[in-house]
Write a structure and sequence with these properties.
There is one protein chain. The protein is of the alpha/beta class. It has two domains: about 180 residues, NAD(P)-binding Rossmann-like Domain (Rossmann fold, 3-Layer(aba) Sandwich); about 130 residues, N-(1-d-carboxylethyl)-l-norvaline Dehydrogenase, domain 2 (Orthogonal Bundle), CATH 1.10.1040. Helices cover about 55% and strands about 10% of the residues. The chain is built from twelve helices and eight strands. It has an eight-stranded mixed beta sheet with strand order 3-2-1-4-5-6-7-8, with helices on both faces. Helix 2 links the parallel strand 2 and strand 3. The longest helix is centred in the C-terminal third of the chain and has 32 residues.
Length: about 300
């Protein structure tokens, strides 16, 4: 991995006053902004279509220190580097919303968890308005907390010579995968077949086995087979992540299935994982714990069973 501490200091400017723009201001956008503002003297602007009123934007700005824009046009005017971090199902719509306002000097980094085909559609949305607009494929390869903008990234696309000095200067941790969009996101998509699939497998196994008092025994046995010392701890973590992020994970897994389909391969497991994550999302488990979901399978398994019973 590459980070600022491992490189020589670079000089020169990238854009007006080192201003960053965020298209989408949910968990990922807020985490990126928080870590940048904590450690660097930068200006960050954001637009999120779900933050509708002037009062809500003012409250977010007061709370986060991020300038909240009322329109994509305002965001494009405020920053030349735009990082898109919406949900997977909104990735192309987000690109379409800002494309008419981008100039030749803008760089658009698409950090959404989508297939190479979807990234190409987003790139086409930009280029349909400005053939010279710079589209960058960005894959976020680990949970965005606690590292924020220092989370491990894969990047593919043009403008490496222009973009790398800025990323180095602000401590981004990344590998450059290549010059073509799709080369970064496909790594994440194929990794998610495994990681998100295992999350759902653990949830289903523990949801059933915990009711019978067998979860610790089964997890210990599975850990021994897989060479993992703390399989119960992994189950606690994965079940909490699923309870909190199931809606976003379901959208991502549909893009994973699309990736495999684009490759001409079977996609049974990511399709099933998306359905499982949809089911968990509909339970709205976070609201049962006022947003503070515990990393505790003995609490979450009953909640997931109850959710299925209610649905039945």
């Amino acid at each position: 991995m590459i980070n600022a501490d491992q490189r020589n200091e670079k000089t020169g400017s990238f854009m007006r006053g080192e201003q960053f723009g965020l298209l989408g201001f949910g968990e990922a956008g807020q985490a990126i902004a928080a870590s940048l503002l904590k450690d660097y003297d930068v200006t960050i602007s954001a637009f999120d279509h779900a933050i509708i009123t002037d009062e809500d934007r003012a409250a977010q700005q007061q709370q986060t220190g991020v300038i909240m824009c009322a329109t994509p046009d305002e965001l494009a005017t405020s920053a030349e580097l735009i990082i898109s971090v919406v949900t997977a199902d909104e990735a192309v719509l987000a690109a379409q919303s800002i494309a008419p306002f981008l100039s030749d000097s803008h760089i658009f980094m698409d950090g959404n968890s989508v297939s190479p085909g979807t990234k190409h559609l987003a790139a086409e949305a930009l280029h349909s308005h400005n053939v010279a607009a710079r589209y960058i494929d960005l894959a976020i390869m680990a949970p965005i907390h606690p590292a924020g903008h220092r989370t491990s990234l894969l990047i593919a696309g043009p403008e490496q010579a222009r973009l790398a000095p800025l990323l180095d200067r602000y401590g981004f941790v990344y590998e450059w995968e290549g010059a073509e969009p799709g080369q970064a996101c496909i790594v994440k998509m194929l990794r998610s077949v495994l990681i998100k699939g295992v999350e759902s497998l653990i949830c289903e196994s523990v949801t059933a086995s915990q009711a019978l008092g067998l979860d610790t025994r089964i997890l210990a046995s599975a850990g021994k087979t897989l060479g993992m010392a703390d399989m119960p701890g992994l189950a606690d973590y994965f079940m909490e992540r699923t309870a909190v992020h199931a809606k976003r994970r379901a959208a991502e897994m549909r893009e994973v299935a699309k990736t495999l389909e684009e490759l001409g391969l079977s996609h049974y497991l990511p399709t099933a994982t998306a359905l499982h994550q949809d089911m968990i999302a509909e339970m709205d488990i976070s609201s049962q714990f006022e947003g503070a979901v515990p990393q505790d399978r003995t609490v979450l398994a009953p909640a997931m069973r109850a959710g299925q019973t209610r649905k039945g």
